[in-house]
Amino acid sequence: MLNVALPKGRLGEKVYAMFEKAGYECPSIKENNRKLIFENEEKQVRYFWVKPSDVSIYVERGAADIGVAGKDILLEYSPDIYELLDLDMGKCRMAVAGKKDFYDDNTRTLKVATKFVNIAKNHYASKCRDIDIIKLNGSIEIAPILGLSDVIVDIVETGTTLKENDLEVIETIVPISARLIANKSSFKFKTKEIENVVESMKAQVKSND
Ligand code: PRP
Questions:
Q1: Residue 153: beta bridge partners?
Q2: What are 7-45's pLDDT values in tens digits?
């Protein structure tokens, strides 16, 4: 049985369609209900809908053999997993943003609000810039407006949230996309099944180019 952790939401639905094309269909997943686990015994596959930021936890601990997680989560939490394939979906970027008149005064510690504490720390450590991290859990864009922070480190997709809050990108840290990941020991013991998925998905990603 191949256990697959899918990120709940639109991205997860697209990803499931790729698994379906790879031969791992599970029709019951399309039922309109609140179930979180779906299984197709004939195809030897079981899917779990999990919070996108939790996929790598299920995979790292072996509750799922494979899953799909954003590169943002992989960079932030460095889970001990194999990253098998860039799915070229869920594309966005991790960026530093601030108010339009933001000026970086190097003599002062920079106040940075973010959900992505490690990404922000690593980014500024590489520039030898002293920062004070303010960890938030959402609506990060409010922080510079209220003077809670000087800048934010956050995901920018369309740029609409920044624009509508009179903020702008100061610099891009790294491009982000969804990745197929595997548990390390599952990869050892279910190599054939997992490689089948990887090969099919690779072909699907290519044909979408
Ligand atoms: C994310 C991110 C930005 C927004 C960017 O927030 O934190 O706020 O999306 O998207 P855009 O560039 O297309 O506007 P999310 O919706 O995940 O909610 P959050 O406030 O809980 O982080």
A1: 96, 114
A2: 999 999 999 999 999 999 999 999 888 999 999 999 999
Q: Which of 93, 157, 168 to mutate to test the pocket of ligand 1 (most atoms within 8 A of CB)?
A: 157
Tokens for 184?
């390390």
User: Does the reported pTM lie above 0.90?
Assistant: yes
Closest CA to 76 of 113, 110, 139, 123: 123
Whether 209 shows a pLDDT value over 80: the answer reads no
Query: What number does the ligand 1 atom closest to the CA of 140 have?
Result: 20
Nearest atom (ligand 1) to Cα of 155 = 2
Q: Decide: 146 and 137 in contact? Cβ < 8 Å.
A: no
148 lines ligand 1 (CB under 6 A): no
pLDDT value, residue 72: 98
Report d(CA 192, CA 174) in Å as an integer: 32
Distances (CA, A) of 36 to 129, 166, 179: 44, 39, 21
Q: Which of 135, 156, 160 to mutate to test the pocket of ligand 1 (most atoms within 8 A of CB)?
A: 156
Per-residue pLDDT tens digits for 151-191: 999 999 999 999 999 999 999 999 999 999 999 999 999 99
Closest Cα to atom 22, ligand 1: which residue? 138
